[in-house]
Amino acid sequence: MKLRIAVLAGDGIGPEVTNEATGILRAVAELGGHDFVFTPGLIGGIAITETGSPLPAATLELALDSDAVFLGAVGDNKFAALSPDKRPEAGLLQIRQALGGFANLRPSVAYAELAGNSPLRPEVTEGVDILFVRELLGGLYFGAPRWWDRDSGESVNTMRYTKGEVVRVARVAFSLAEKRRKKVTSVDKANVLEVSQLWRATVTEVARDYPDVTLEHQLVDSMAMHLMNIPRNFDVVLTENLFGDILSDEAAVITGSLGMLPSATIGGAVNLYEPVHGSAPDIAGTGKANPLGAILTAAMVLRHSAHLEAEAAAIEHAVQHVLAAGHRTADLARGSDPTHAIVSTSQMGKLVHQALTEAIDRRQSMHAV
Ligand code: IPM
Ligand code: MN
């Protein structure tokens, strides 16, 4: 099949991890006879430096004309003093809005091989497999009015949702839950916020169309605690933009490292794929970045934009295989066996590539007999 992928590597460790992820996609294309076309584009701090804008028109055009957009990371301390609308992050928010994907899927899976890596006890993390569905185009991130008046010392952001915005993201969560363990946990702050009351009433209404799926509501503060105490209780977690941003980072504690988490944003004109981790400028260029979040994001590209489920699963198995063999990037060193080898970003990419090639070769030779 043919897939045109816009590759927006961005800032910090973005280019390093993106390089490994696209390498894996190229391998899948070669092994399976697919035609994946990669076109690079600028976004974030690098785009500000080179063009003056965090999302140049050419990038937007490229993205809208692609079948999928793969984004590395944006963020550069160099621009920390700028107002939010001029920072590298503004480019990310603008492209999210332009592509129109409102459901950000963030799986959080506890790999048995990394059990010693989480500060949580293995019996707490064992078997955890949560899918966060984070609403991505509403709430405080995009609500107006928004301003900071330096003279009066007053500032405003607006948390705003329409019923329609809640319905569409809730439907995604329930549909995905139907194919999993059939439970949706909707997270809000309905004891304080009207927006959350609308959210809760709407999700409850949508749930009626999915009789096989159990719905529970949690307040975001107690959810933050339950997530660490009893993460196995959760299947699909549905929540608004900011709560989802915070809880998905918290969930990284279960997997052992933020560097492991992939994401896909669906529902719009073009799907957007980005690892959950940021640009990590402190380790950029040192070979310490973990490319597995980006590589697992590549698997999501195959699953959600190419309908190559077997190939997506093969990448996920290859990652597991490499971890089982004891290979670790620096972020995964904690709590690991002293015999484990610490590998660089590119070595980790090569190891996954090898494991994937071997698995696909095995499958093809099995089919041949
Ligand atoms: C994320 C990031 C972004 C967000 C930032 C970089 C704007 O933290 O994708 O989780 O807040 O959505
Ligand atoms: Mn975040």
Strand order of the largest sheet: 2-1-3-12-11-4-5-10-8-9
Number of strands: 14
Quaternary status of these chains?
Answer: single chain
User: What is the 3D form?
Assistant: globular
Task: Report the span from N to C terminus.
Answer: 25 Å
Number of helices: 12
Structural class: alpha/beta
Question: How is the biggest beta sheet arranged?
Answer: 10 strands, mixed
Bound chemical compounds: 3-isopropylmalic acid, manganese (II) ion
Report low-confidence residues grouped into runs of 5 or more.
none
Helix and strand run:
EHEHHEHEHEEEHEHEHEHEEHHEEH
Helix content: 40-55%
Percentage of β-strand residues: 15-25%
Radius of gyration, in Å, reads 20 Å
Mean pLDDT: 96
Short description:
43% of the residues lie in helices and 18% in strands.
Can you offer a commentary on this structure?
It is a single chain. By secondary structure, this protein is of the alpha/beta class. Helix content is 43%, strand content 18%. The chain is built from twelve helices and 14 strands. It has a ten-stranded mixed β-sheet with strand order 2-1-3-12-11-4-5-10-8-9, with helices on both faces. A two-stranded antiparallel ribbon has the order 6-7. Strand 1, helix 1 and strand 2 form a beta-alpha-beta unit. The protein is globular. 49% of the residues are buried. The mean pLDDT is 96.
